[in-house]
Design brief:
Layout lengths: L1 H20 L4 H24 L12 H26 L10 H24 L12 H21 L2 H18 L2 H22 L1
């Protein structure tokens, strides 16, 4: 049984090394910006119209923003991209036929969406975070597609991690994510702060 697991471990190790070793370049950066712009053109109108996204400035201070942004760079961005893109998907340089690669891409996408449902039912249970809300799952699915496409083209863990990170920060600090992930307590605290500033 242990010997059977060795090829799988070796395959994952190869994927990790290849993705970590693929650095960022200017063309990759432009690709990432274009992909984020495309995602924004889809996600923002839908999210605002469906009222899942709410314009909201959740930045308390530059220091707290910086520390929280660093934490979110590691998790969810780096952790989720390592698992759902790098470990699940063949590296583009492996030369896998496109149809088989797209099949693995579908597996990655489904796993990414289901993971957020599980998060909502476990880690964020009772917080009303909305991670199993169909509107959020559609937004997450679109993001997953964009990230899968970017990884297929570049094979860079760093690019998809930064893209994921930017989307998370924009949602958390600009469109209601902070209150959703913090639950009722965060909403109460924020309401009190707003009331105090208006006095």
């Amino acid at each position: 049984m242990l010997l059977d697991a060795v090829p799988v471990v070796d395959l994952i190790a190869q994927r990790l090394l290849a993705a970590f070793d693929t650095g960022l370049t200017w063309p990759m950066g432009l690709l990432g910006l274009g992909a984020l712009a495309l995602y924004g053109l889809l996600a923002l109108p839908f999210g605002l119209k469906s009222k899942f996204l709410v314009r909201q400035n959740a930045v308390a201070s530059p220091l707290s923003l910086g520390l929280d942004a660093l934490r979110r760079l590691i998790a969810p961005a780096l952790v989720e991209e390592t698992v759902f893109r790098v470990m699940l998907l063949p590296h583009p340089m492996a030369g896998l036929p496109s149809d088989r690669w797209l099949l693995w891409g579908s597996v990655s996408l489904v796993a990414f969406v289901v993971y957020h449902v599980v998060l909502d039912k476990t880690l964020y249970k009772g917080a009303e975070a909305g991670l199993s809300d169909p509107r959020f799952l559609l937004l997450a699915g679109w993001l997953g597609l964009v990230l899968i496409g970017a990884y297929w083209i570049t094979g860079s863990l760093w690019l998809v991690t930064l893209m994921h990170w930017v989307v998370v920060l924009v949602w958390i600090y600009g469109f209601g994510g902070w209150v959703r992930l913090g639950g009722a307590a965060a909403f109460t605290r924020q309401s009190r702060k707003l009331a105090e500033t208006e006095r």
